Batch of 3 targets.
Target 1
Amino acid sequence: MEWLEASHRDWLVETPAEATNWRTCLMEKAHFPSPLHLESVESTNTWMLREGDTLPEWSVVYTFDQTQGKGRRGRVWTSLPGDTLAMSVLVPAMPEEVPATWIPLLAGSSLVRVLRNLGLDFAQVKWPNDVLVGPRKLSGTLVEQTVRGSLIVGIGINVFSAADRLPDPDA
């Protein structure tokens, strides 16, 4: 934790009560823009890369119809319209000491926590950027950097996909 400035060290949490206090303070001090719904878009990350310089930090764009979704290493993320929630979040630039590989892991871990709270006890992170429920891939994360150094954290969640259309976990 050496990379944390002294003024930020007191934001670290050790207990659930401290986490609740931290979230309360964050919500009171931070301004989160309203999510922007797109009826259809080629890719929420591509849209955010194109429009992100005009948007405030922590902007969120989402759609249920992503026509040219993408994954790591040039892979394609495909789904039928209405099957998948695709979203991208514009995250402020991280300090140089924060490894970029942490960001998809943090996003996946956060999603797993939400899913477990909703009763999907078998949700787990598959390193480096996927979330599995049982043997099937529920979600993938793609992080890209803007010209100004901000990060675009794109997450695709197979919300309404039939089990036989879920991607193979090795995809």
Target 2
Amino acid sequence: MDLQALQSELKRLNLDAINSHIGVDQMEDQFDFVSRLGCSYIIAPAASFYDKESAEKYAEQLNGLGKKAASYGLKVGFHNHLSEFYKDQGKCLMDYVIENSDPETVTFELDAGWAYAAGVDPLAYIKKNPVMWKAIKRYKTKLPNQMSRPKSSSTWSTATTSCTPGRTFRS
């Protein structure tokens, strides 16, 4: 669908495009289209980092893309799944990416369902780095075999109702 057709369809449905999920290898080619569509964020929906070093390199890649995206009025972001919460050297891989990302040009979309499935309390994780989250994906994820629900300080209900429409977080 071309840009005008997509804009017309969104207008007909009374919807705004806030972000677009595009792989990091295709992002740069899509900055113009996504910004003209009206998005503020271009989000990587997946990544392949598996240890501290590769997570830090991924953050460097996001930072580089974020600098380029800024000239289009966009912030680059990342959307987690389960594996980003695997640990290396006692810390979640996602933490390495967040800590090494520039908050001026990089943001994150927390998939609360996958965080919860990984045994991470989504509400506590949001509070840990509140300036980094510009979107929250809220739903229940079926747990992979052999996983159990986390014992956390917040219930699923508390974690998901802390997220309100319009990307507003309330504690």
Target 3
Amino acid sequence: MRGKITLRVSFLAVLLTVALILSYLESIISFGFIFPGFRLGLSNITVVVVLYFFGARFAVPFGLIKSFFSLMFLGRFSSLFFSMTGMVFSLIVMILLRKIGKFSIYSVSACGSVFHIWGQIFAAAFYLSSLSAFIFIPWLSLLAVFSGIAVGWLSNIILSRLNSSICGKFR
């Protein structure tokens, strides 16, 4: 029993490290030519993997810790409110869709991506005390769908490898 817990914590720590590396890589690769401030959200692959591999009980703290450390290491601590709001919106939707059980990993990830954007827009509107931030929802939502599908696709590949390896034995 104790060995399973150690393996689980170690694996989650590795996934958190991967998420931080992906966040860093995204911060130095600009996608501003697509839409100002747009990021692919590749570090969210780890959140989707944790949700599908370990369940919601682990995905919620993992996602929040990932957001917190990502912002802390990248020096954008002022963005914590936006990131956390987006992560909470995303996690709620992904957990609900996963629990319903009728949606593919691609749909769950795409919806999570869209709601992450919406959470950030709501946070921006609240922070700015203005509804002007909502003008970005259509374009960012469209980009989020494509980004979310890509994250879901990559997550699916990783999960298929994990489920067929020894990692599947320590859930």
